[in-house]
Design goal:
This protein is mostly beta strands. The strands form two sheets. It has a five-stranded antiparallel beta sheet, with no helix packed on it. The two termini are 26 Å apart. It comes from Methylobacillus rhizosphaerae.
Length: 110
Amino acid sequence: MSIQHCVPGEIIDISPFGDNFDTATSATLIRESHLEVFRFVLKAGKATPEHIAAGALTIQCVEGDVELASCGQTQVLKASTLVYLRAGDPHTVKALTDSTLLITILLERE
C-alpha cells in the first residue's frame, strides 16, 4: 500500500498536537521531485544522529523546544521559530520537551 500524500490545493493542518501528543506520529505531507515537507515528532530527550539533508532546508518548530547543533553552534528552537540550513550542512536535533517540527527540503536529488 502506498503512502498517501497531500495533493496540490489541499489544506494541511499543522496545528500543535498539545494534549494529544502521545498519539502523534511523524508524517510526510508533500513529496515531489524537487520538494519534500514533513512533520517530525520528537519526544523529550530523543535526538537524531548527525546527518545531512538532500538539499537546503528549513526547520520550523511548531511546538516544544529543540536543541539544534549545526554550523558550528548549538541553539534552541522554540515554538514559532524557524531556521534555514544550506545544502550539505550537517546537523542534529534533540528534543528538550515533546516537540513537533515542520521540515521543508528543497531537494537536490540526482
